[in-house]
Every structure is written in C-alpha cells, then in structure tokens.
Amino acid sequence: MSRILIVQGHPDTTRPHLCHALADHYREGAESAAHEVHQISIAALDFPILKSQQEWQYGDLPATLESAQREIQWAQHLVLIFPLWLGGMPALVKGFLEQVARPGFAFEYQDNNPLGKKGLTGRSARILVTMGMPALIYRHFFRAHSVKALERNILGFVGFTPIRETLIGSVETMSDKTRLAWFRKLRRLGKRAE
Fold first, then answer.
1. pTM
2. Is the peptide bond before 162 cis (omega within 30 degrees of 0)?
3. How does DSSP classify residue 88?
4. d(Cα 44, Cα 48) in Å, to the nearest integer?
5. pLDDT at residue 115 above 80?
6. Is 74 a residue whose pLDDT tops 80?
7. 186 to each of 136, 144, 181, how far by Cα in Å?
8. Using CA atoms, how far apart are residues 77 and 73, in angstroms rounded to an integer?
9. CB 32 within 8 A of CB 191
10. How crowded is the C-beta side of 51, counted as CA atoms within 13 Å?
C-alpha cells in the first residue's frame, strides 16, 4: 500500500475538464488497490505569487499552503496533472511549486555542495500533461522541453525519483474510444501507484 498525493493543476474551476476526469480515474484505480490517496486542487488555494529571491528564501510560507507542504511530506508518490499552456505549465502551477518547494523544506543549502541536500528523497512522481497538439510532436519536435525542465530542475532537484511522464495530446479532437482507453490506463497506473 502506498500513500499517493494527486495535485490537480488545472486552473479552471468553473467546469470539469479532462484533467479532472483523469485524476478521478487514477484515484479510483489507486483506491481499488487499497492505496491511500489525498488530493490537492491548486485552483482552490489562495496564495500570492513570489516576486523576489529574498521572498522565496526567507519569506514566510503562506498559511494556505502549509497543509500542501504537509501533504507532500506525507506522500510516497506524487501525481501532478495539468494542461499544457503556451508550451509549459500554467502560471498557477508554477506559482504553487515556487511557493512549496522552498529552502528548508524541499532542499537544504550546504556549503560544500552547490546543489544542496535534497529534502524530498524516497518519493516517486508521475507528471500527466494534456495538450491540444499531438503528443508525438510535443515530445519529438519540441523535445517536451517544459516537462523535462520540471522533471530535472524542480522534482529531480529536490529528490523525486523515478519521475515518469504521461503526455496526452490532441485532446480537442479525441474520440470517446480514445478517451475511455486513457481512463483505463490511468486506473491501471493508479492500481500500481506509478
């Protein structure tokens, strides 16, 4: 049994989106295998955007994000779900990660190590990204640059490993059959906690 945290990063709370359905199916699969699952909806949180390095390093974590840090600390496996916007994660997701992945929590500075000490080791992650373009084009032509940066520069930097990705493209033209196939795949991933 694993402790799984699903972080729903779709910024629109006015109606359900594919990201929400994918999270639901992952959760169903995980719970059917007796994994313990918690979920955070970033769009439901109220927090400011950081505006300086000083604020990031030494400022107080907003009280609205204290429970998010506790949830990340609790989790053995993190599932981060968001739509691709302008080639990267939505600003709300980036702002959330900047706030919660602070020194003293996500990593520690060390004088003899320019990379610091990773604070979130022993955890795995899956990044699930939906997009309008075909996933093959994003992966091969654009080299999935923003997802690779998230894997290496944020999650990997603070200790998550392994980090797996699921890229779901052509969402606006997706057939019902393809959508159901993705839902089945997400339930299988949830059962395996990967």
1. 0.95
2. yes
3. B
4. 13
5. no
6. yes
7. 19, 20, 9
8. 10
9. yes
10. 2
